[in-house]
Amino acid sequence: xxxxxxxxxxxxxxxxxxxxxxxxxxxxxxxxxxxxxxxxxxxxxxxxxxxxxxxxxxxxxxxxxxxxxxxxxxxxxxxxxxxxxxxxxxxxxxxxxxxxxxxxxxxxxxxxxxxxxxxxxxxxxxxxxxxxxxxxxxxxxxxxxxxxxxxxxxxxxxxxxxxxxxxxxxxxxxxxxxxxxxxxxxxxxxxxxxxxxxxxxxxxxxxxxxxxxxxxxxxxxxxxxxxxxxxxxxxxxxxxxxxxxxxxxxxxx
Amino acid sequence: xxxxxxxxxxxxxxxxxxxxxxxxxxxxxxxxxxxxxxxxxxxxxxxxxxxxxxxxxxxxxxxxxxxxxxxxxxxxxxxxxxxxxxxxxxxxxxxxxxxxxxxxxxxxxxxxxxxxxxxxxxxxxxxxxxxxxxxxxxxxxxxxxxxxxxxxxxxxxxxxxxxxxxxxxxxxxxxxxxxxxxxxxxxxxxxxxxxxxxxxxxxxxxxxxxxxxxxxxxxxxxxxxxxxxxxxxxxxxxxxxxxxxxxxxxxxx
Amino acid sequence: xxxxxxxxxxxxxxxxxxxxxxxxxxxxxxxxxxxxxxxxxxxxxxxxxxxxxxxxxxxxxxxxxxxxxxxxxxxxxxxxxxxxxxxxxxxxxxxxxxxxxxxxxxxxxxxxxxxxxxxxxxxxxxxxxxxxxxxxxxxxxxxxxxxxxxxxxxxxxxxxxxxxxxxxxxxxxxxxxxxxxxxxxxxxxxxxxxxxxxxxxxxxxxxxxxxxxxxxxxxxxxxxxxxxxxxxxxxxxxxxxxxxxxxxxxxxx
Amino acid sequence: xxxxxxxxxxxxxxxxxxxxxxxxxxxxxxxxxxxxxxxxxxxxxxxxxxxxxxxxxxxxxxxxxxxxxxxxxxxxxxxxxxxxxxxxxxxxxxxxxxxxxxxxxxxxxxxxxxxxxxxxxxxxxxxxxxxxxxxxxxxxxxxxxxxxxxxxxxxxxxxxxxxxxxxxxxxxxxxxxxxxxxxxxxxxxxxxxxxxxxxxxxxxxxxxxxxxxxxxxxxxxxxxxxxxxxxxxxxxxxxxxxxxxxxxxxxxx
Amino acid sequence: xxxxxxxxxxxxxxxxxxxxxxxxxxxxxxxxxxxxxxxxxxxxxxxxxxxxxxxxxxxxxxxxxxxxxxxxxxxxxxxxxxxxxxxxxxxxxxxxxxxxxxxxxxxxxxxxxxxxxxxxxxxxxxxxxxxxxxxxxxxxxxxxxxxxxxxxxxxxxxxxxxxxxxxxxxxxxxxxxxxxxxxxxxxxxxxxxxxxxxxxxxxxxxxxxxxxxxxxxxxxxxxxxxxxxxxxxxxxxxxxxxxxxxxxxxxxx
Lengths: 253, 253, 253, 253, 253
What we know:
Five copies of one chain form a homopentamer. By secondary structure, chain A is an alpha+beta fold. Helices cover 34% and strands 25% of the residues of chain A. In chain A, strands 1, 2, 3, 4, 5, 6, 7, 8 and 9 form a nine-stranded antiparallel β-sheet that branches. Chain A is globular.
């Protein structure tokens, strides 16, 4: 894992001072959404002309949004039975997340593509990297996809016992976790925070070009002490970076 | 969190005397409902004229109810995959909750908007604020939305172990919980009670204008001792205050 | 709670002798069913004439059954998202439960009203009230609704640890449970038994005219020792006693 | 319970020698399936003529199969909300289970009757009855319905802790279990085995003519020591023996 | 179980050196997918001609893929209620898994066959067989079906406690597991790895010609010490090797 993104745990007592609501003196944080779609097979039974029109409209919405915000498309058809593709978005304004959803909903394809899963989160500084190291322009507060071939995404919830541990114990366990991660330099990690916003505590997103490296990393992490404090880490999604137009062709849209 | 609404736990032994069924001497309590709707995509395929008629009818029902009762609308499209909008209602009579539901069901849009989640609850005094402080006109018994930009809602169930603790222990833990809450003055809390009425024990609703403050508060609360007695606090809903007509346009209704 | 119905636990060792299969010397026990229905919105799109015919037929079926058996209707629209109304039936013969279901299924509305939940149970004597007190005509073996305004229903499963306790311990806990219940005289309880017949062990049904009394009672019961042995007590249903014709009008049938 | 069928636990260490794959010297074991069906309400909207044709075809398939294999029909309408009827089959060849399913699927009613639950299992000798007592023609290896009025069915999974107990401890607990069962002579038990074949370990099927006897037996068994090692015993199905043609009429097919 | 495939556990600390991302010096690993399909009954209502065309197209897709990759078909109709057939695929490229899915989706039958379950995994060496024994051409890295009559498949998750055990303890338990397996020589095992790729840790697939042998093996394995560390091993699928054209005929496609 790259060093930049290894650190996922936050001790809130250390943070409360600088995270409270005076945004003027702080670098803004981004909202992030991972939205998983399934095409209604009824769409495939419509006339070719309407389907071409619908696909062009959807691609135009996607492209327009992509020019101003972080937006990536991934194919999951052939890998996971409950969804066909995923859109990964990041923006500073919740209106942007709602806006793209509204545009898709109101388009010709809108009534035929279902959101079957979605994870909402925000960027946040981790307590495990010192403030001095990053200053006011911490890259962890901005989503910057590395555009590798695969993205692995899952929601994450720790046991309440974890949060009752001392900061020292948690730091020790996170350091072991980090050491294992560093043995897989091909894998980089984006962790965002969902406390109170959605059903999970974190959304964990790993980028890599080598599927087996990610599998081996996750298996090794099972033996770390921190792993015992995992309450939930499913569903797990294997996502392949693909242009949206290729995905739509592939699923027969 | 504002001081008024911080207190969520109730020791029933202290309450049984004054909460029993002699309503003449007590301030009445309100019934509260949070109803989450999803639009059936078939609605979008109907003729424009019928859809305009349906939307106008739904807005008129909403407006008429709002003039006599607490009623607010929130958008969830683009944030949560399983619902599009939420209506927050409060009233002294269960007939009012049933009445608005009936009017919506019997309207043109009725067969096309599904209730996918709903939480039923009542207002109730907390044991942690003394009777003298509020007297017979306790504002906690009346829902008064502050009309901030965001509402965060989730159902809440404590472990049975919590209820076996002494009152003293629970008060101590609630005081710590309160102290953490007070460090986020932008967040205010409405807690209502669902024991026996619905699948949860409490419905917790936080209002704020700053999403990140709420996220940081919830993360900090994980480290409180009271947090270990949480059995369930999902699903969690991020709701954006929006006029109903804007929501209906946005979801292509 | 009324004294008659407070007692819900049964020690089978004391009962095996008198509950075995010689029905000639015993008062018969009733079968009870709580059936929760949801109207298919497609029904609302049918012609008015067919819908009037369907409603009249359903009401006639209901009325005919009511004349010979215990049968009550309750509205849940506007209170719970997954069902519209509930029918509470009791009869000595399983054929009666199947008969009413068959008549509804074969009626015009049959294909459009879905059973979304149902709880099957039987009446049974509790071990906590002595045999002498009731004799051969124990009212607990006959369902006699008090026809109050509200009925609260939920399925109930105790932990296996409960059943491993001594009879003495369980009696002590049930006595505490009873004492709490007696402080809410407006609430009366019907407990029926589902062991082996359905997914729960008991179906608990409380009648009251005062919603807040029931809520406060359930919250107080959380602090009893017996409460720690609850494995499952959801879903919980708030039901409003209403004539079936009013319900059908209200849900746009 | 009848003595023949009381015994449900198997200690595999004692069995491995005689259960391995030399079928020539052993009495063959049967495959058993409990299939629960729900009628699609769309069927009820088809023309009477097609429906009569469909029902006759289904009855002919059922009768033909019944002449060569164990096959029984049970009604669940009016008792359980998620299914209408159940077919209980037993055969020596998996092709027979697939064959009847195929015939039903390909019939006129096929697209309109859904399998909503199914439990697949096999007959097997229990370790608690000695080999000598039964010899090579053990009746437990052949399903022979007693054709009583009621059949109660549920899937059953024990905790892994059970399997870590000594054989002696398990035998002692099973003996207590058996003693309780013997006090209800009206109830007989068919236990079949699903390890590795389906989601449960056992399928338990009780036949009786007296519903309350079965309820009372299951409640008493809660107090046995073996009961503490139950991990899952739901869903539970109350099934009424009925000719298939009566069932089809009753559900409006 | 055959010796080749008995070993399922991997100690990652021993593996990290040789499993990292330098594929040039390593035998490549395969991606594996088990996809379970259910036919939409609407397909059966289409004209015979279109259905024949659809079936021929699906068979041609299947045959073309089978000539270049591992691909097998299995029937589950009549055995499991939630699916009709399963396709077992293996390939070195994720594009192959996506490609076959795309071809099926875009075919005439595409809108009518639903993926109701799917398990994604990879081959991987087990730590329990030494490197020297196999060298660079380890057969465990290549899926080679033995084409027996039955395939039993389930997803598998171990408890986190397992991963906290010493390697020595885990090896001891796996050796006991292996010894039990060896008493059933008719059963062979394919274990593949899903860490991070899908909701399970392993996908376990057993081939045999004798159903009862597999049942007896799974029951015996319950008594091993390793069995206590199983967190989840359901759903379990009994799959019958059948040509796809026979399956399609049997389910009325």
